[in-house]
Design brief:
With about 375 residues, the chain is an alpha/beta fold. The protein contains 14 helices and 14 strands.
Amino acid sequence: MKKSLGQFLSQAQTDGLFRQLAPVSRRNKGQVTIKNRIYFDFSSNDYLGLAHDKTLKKHAEAALEKHGFGATGSRLLSGDSNLIHQLETAIAKFKQKPAALVFNSGYQANIGIISTLYTPQDAIFADRLCHASILDGIKLSGAEIFRFKHNDTAHLETLLKKHRSQAKNALIVTESIFSMDGDCAPLKKLVALKNKYNTWLMTDEAHATGLFGARGSGLCEALNLSAEIELIMGTFSKALGGFGAYLACDETTKDYLINRCRSFIYSTALPHPVIAWNLAAINLVPSLTKKRSHLQKISAHFRSKCQSLGLNVLGETQITPIILGKTNRAVKTAKALQKRGYWVLPIRYPTVPQDAARLRLSLCADHSLKMLDLFIQDLECLI
Ligand SMILES: *Cc1c(COP(=O)(O)O)cnc(C)c1O
């Protein structure tokens, strides 16, 4: 056994695909400290800089003092609390859906929701770039999977035409903002297709929650489509600086999941301070319009600067991936940028397709135009 593990690891090293952890001693205000060196941080999903927010810390501390840390059990046993019900009421309102259910993480939410609602008689049509947790949920469900080309609604329609009628229930699933490409799903067209072919639609708003729409609830809100999308999933772990995830849906779906969803039933509930943090963050986010518009402004500026260097930069959001192709090129460029004081990580196979290795630069509200311009100057010297 150990020998085959060793063989895998040495092959990964040869291919530039060996992954290592990099312990951080501090991460705040767009900077990160690793082994006593401070870097500008381009790797974090803390898009609004909330992970150190003073008000949110106070709410978490107060909950710690009042309720203690651990939930003491799963929600159907001893772990249910008022706080988590308050959080669900707040999310339902925030996401403009009748109900919401909290999950312990985005990964647990996606595998649980999809595998509980769908069966081997069903068909699931998934964008080719959907997150691993969505794909794992589909595998667990046993439903037949059809993957459509990224954001290609014509290809999706071809697949629906051919395969929808054989299935009992069907689902179209996508991320609303794509985590590795930084672009938006064509939600309006997806809603039209789900109506035409009688399927449900599920969106994963992990990278949109906090950032899009007038109240910052996500892309479904921004496009005024919340009422038409049956399953709106999202996380507290990115722009909200918290931890855990949610599904916003109708009451019946929520009750069904409480009764059947294994990743919900067989896991201890979130700790009280985490729930209090998430609740305070949901209440805070609608007021953060300035941070959202700053982030949009610097993202557009940064993207156009990269393009003027002739770089292949994807997307249209705070996630700005620079495609470098070969794994080794991405690894080398990331290392050189790290030497110059920028914490940039290469994203490679199997997270992204082979030969689409990239630098994934996450911009956040704590970044300034000045710092981004310095980064562009340094990048220009390296490519
Ligand atoms: C991060 C992420 C998840 C997983 O969420 P966690 O709370 O980190 O488990 C799910 N879907 C997408 C698109 C993500 O980016």
